[in-house]
Amino acid sequence: MRTTTAWHADPEGLRPASLERRELRPDDIAVRVDYCGLCHSDLQTLHDHDGHSPLVPGHEFTGVVIEVGPEVTAFSVGDNVAVGNIVDSCGQCPMCRAGQENFCHSFPTLTYGGRDRVDGTTTLGGFSREYVVREDFAYRLPVGLDPAAAAPLMCAGITAWEPLRALEVGPGARVAVVGLGGLGHLAVKFAVALGATTTVISRTQDKAEDAHRLGAHGFIVSTDPAQMADARENFDLVIDTISAPHDLTEYLKVVGLDGTHSVLGYLGAVTVEVTDLLIGRKKLSSAGSGGRPATAEMLQFCADNGVVPEVEVLPSAQVDRALDRLERNDVRYRFVLDMSDLDGAV
Predict the structure, then answer these.
(1) Contact 262, 287 (CB under 8 A)
(2) Which part of the chain is the Enoyl reductase (ER) domain (predicted)?
(3) Which of the residues 71, 99, 274, 303 could staple to 293 if both were Cys, CB 3.0 to 4.6 A apart?
(4) Which fold has domain 160-286?
(5) Which of 196, 139, 144 is nearest to 307 (CA)?
(6) What is the reported pLDDT for 52?
(7) What is the pLDDT of residue 12?
(8) Radius of gyration of the chain (CA)
(9) Is 176 helix (H, G, I), strand (E, B) or coil?
(10) Which residues of 264-281 are buried (b: 16+ CB within 10 A; e: fewer)?
């Protein structure tokens, strides 16, 4: 087994400790993890952790290849790479064959909290100094992308990218992004870079300046009935990034004829009046993560167009502070942990 250092969850929080990784299989690469993003799902997983199973969070990271298996062809030692929240899939079902490993019929293997498809062990995540992954689920980091800023692209980025691309958003499209947080600010950047006329919908006026700085052409306060009435049927696509349960009714009203409301932030049950879809032939959709082709395409698009998240980089030793601030939504717009301080931490 290989030994590295990682932030392990226990009842008192996260603590640095040694971690064993598997020896490289023929198609594996070992990645020195340099930067790992911090996501709301990490926070929720830590809240739900019962302490009985091993847990190392982190599912969006960048780093450098430090060793390759004998059958690896896509990478060499020294390559800059990125890894997201999916590290394996069955490879055989219709979704996998279509390049949508995120929808694998037998469920994709997640970067942490998943089940390794070979030995059955629990996967442990990127809050560590080294990660071992199949080469098919690592991505070359294009030249020009800052490794720290690129880390959140591997979760929030691809989640926002897939519906925009699937719905062929481009010049002339009218896109509204509901919520301007870690996910929403990337949806704005992508929509603008794709050429869409882009509007942010938020509960208060507080983020109007940020929205325009990010490139948004318009801003609507959702709690203002007059503004929402003026926006009725104005948009071809509404990207909904609200993470808490909420009523979709008012947002469906701003979707235009044959338009789509795509719910990305909340994955629980929703109630919809069918007539709210019927009037205007509207569609309700969702998306989560992305397949391998879309992820590679997104990374190249970001490099070509200068699209990266706005991040605050902290030493990984400040992870508890970052989690506390994340819980209070005290970040604009994503935390990224610098994992280099794990060298010699144990």
Answers:
(1) yes
(2) 9-337
(3) 99
(4) Rossmann fold (3.40.50)
(5) 144
(6) 80
(7) 80
(8) 20
(9) strand
(10) bbbeeeeeeeeebbeebe
pLDDT score for 11: 79
Q: CB-hemisphere CA count at 13 Å for 183?
A: 27
**44: Cβ–Cβ under 8 A, 6 or more apart, which residues?**
none
Q: Measure CA of the first residue to CA of the last residue in the chain; give whole Å.
A: 18
Look up residue 237 and give its amino acid: L
Handedness of CA 17, 23, 25, 29 (dihedral sign): positive
Which pair of tokens denotes residue 332? 């604009």
Instruction: Kindly report the number of other CB atoms within 10 A of residue 260's CB atom.
Output: 18
What number does CATH give the domain 2-155+290-342? Answer: 3.90.180.10
pLDDT for 333 = 94
Residues in the chain: 346
| pLDDT the model gives residue 344 | 78
For 202-221, write each residue's pLDDT tens digit.
Answer: 999 999 999 999 999 999 99
Q: Return the beta strands (E) in the chain as ranges.
A: 2-10, 13-21, 28-38, 61-68, 80-83, 86-88, 109-110, 130-134, 138-140, 174-178, 197-202, 218-221, 235-240, 255-263, 283-286, 311-315, 334-338
Name the 3-class secondary structure at 3: strand
Which residues, other chains included, contact 306 with Cβ-Cβ below 8 Å and sequence gap of 6+? 144
Strands 197-202 and 218-221: parallel
* Eight-class DSSP state of 115: B
Place of tokens 């302490």: 51
Walking along the chain (346 residues) 10 residues at a time, the average pLDDT comes out as 95 91 98 96 92 93 98 98 98 98 98 97 98 98 97 97 95 98 97 98 96 98 98 98 95 98 94 96 96 98 97 97 95 96 85
- C-alpha to C-alpha distance for 25 and 59, rounded to whole angstroms: 21
Please report the pLDDT score of residue 55 as a whole number.
97
Residues 6+ apart with CB under 8 A from 59: 39, 41, 42, 84, 85, 110, 111, 112, 125, 126, 154, 155
pTM of the model: 0.95
Report the pLDDT value the prediction gives residue 81, as an integer from 0 to 100: 98
